[in-house]
Amino acid sequence: MKNWLSKLFLFGVGALVIFGLAYAFVPVPELVDLAKIAPGELLVTVDEDGKTRIRERYIVSAPLSGRLLRIDLDPGDEVKAGETLLATIEPRDPELLDARTIAQAEARLKAAESAVLRAAPLTEQARLEQANAEEELGRLRNASVGGGVTESELDMAEMRYRTASEAIRSAKYAEEIAKFEAQQAEAALMRSKPLDANASLEEGANGWTFYIRSPITGRVLRTLQESSAVLIAGAPLLELGDPRDLEVEIDVLSSDAVKIRPGAKVFLEHWGGADALIGHVRLVEPAGFTKISTLGVEEQRVNVIVDLDAPPEERESLGDGFRVEARIVVADVDNALLAPTSALFRTGEEWRVFVVRDEIAHEQPVEIGQQNGLFAEVKKGLTAGDEVVVHPSDRITEGTWVQKR
User: Fold this and answer.
1) What DSSP letter does each residue of 321-334 carry, written as one string?
2) pLDDT of residue 354 exceeding 50
3) Is the pLDDT of residue 154 over 80?
């Protein structure tokens, strides 16, 4: 009985050893992550941080020497063109009666009048260019109904119309400033000469006090001289601007700047609002500059200027000098066959992927086009519905048995 039990025990141990060895050599599938190839839109973007800035700033300076009274305006205060009193300058004898001061004031008046004459034809030219762009846009829209105009030509016409509209607004703004400076120079000259008996006096003054009123409608950005002081002509007093009229300055690598074209779409994210703001590139500056990165590496950077498409009502909380994260679109491929870039690997000069068919991995060469870091456009080698291995390890080779994780 004991011998029989011993033989049975030895037989069981042997069977277990044989079963273990057999199980160890049985092939098992490699567990992998799979992704399905599908068509979609591919956006290739240049991602950089940017900051907002007011498009047009205006520095109000003292037009003549004298004693400045204390300025009560603070940053953020609203001002209206021709109404809001910015500063008051009282005379400091004998400078306001000095012959040299009078001659300088006359020269400034002539220069200001010339600037007004120069601004008028520029405004008219901008108006004509806007009208021409509007007519051309209308013709192309009518022609697009019959299919005679491409979408690219229509987009370019719309961009030219928007650019012409911005140009006429800038020209009108420059003309208003030129007229204001001419009025300031004329007033300064009037107060540099003794008043005759028929001269009218300023309100509540003796005719020699000089009042500076706002040339634009907007807000005070900075108060450069708040306390009362004796100033010379040209001393800066206030910085004005309209926070609703914003643009975005983005500095990008020069190697990325050559890919960006005026009119390119821009997504502005993480600015504080729930949705991304949409903008378009107005200008890629022609000159670059050197900037030291956080790693201490010298980089050549280029400023890209972006106009906001969203109306001011949708971005009231956005102000001057605010940080935004910008995604500038440099390529937009519709209905592209997309593959994850994590599935691609190189063999020599070729891009390849592992395609899984019937749980068997096959190494497949592919031809790719645009890439955006997450996905790549597949031009040849794959079809919609194919499954590829994501992050293939060195255990995956041609013919490997795989299963989805």
Assistant:
1) T-EEEEEEEEEEEE
2) yes
3) no
CB 281, CB 252: distance < 8 Å: no
3-state helix, strand, coil split of the chain in percent (to 5) is 30, 40, 30
User: DSSP readout, 170-194?
Assistant: HHHHHHHHHHHHHHHHHHHHHTTS-
Token couple for 375: 């996905």
State the fold for domain 44-53+244-333: Elongation Factor Tu (Ef-tu); domain 3 (2.40.30)
Q: Which residue has the higher pLDDT, 281 or 125?
A: 281
Residue whose pair of structure tokens reads 């846009």 in the numeric block: 137
Q: Which CATH class is domain 30-42+334-404?
A: mainly beta
* pTM, entire model: 0.60
Report the distance separating Cα 104 and Cα 65, nearest Å: 12
Residue ranges of the domains in the chain?
A: 30-42+334-404, 44-53+244-333, 92-208
Segments in 146-281 forming alpha helices (H) = 151-190, 254-257
Q: What whole-number distance in Å separates Cα of residue 110 and Cα of residue 102?
A: 13
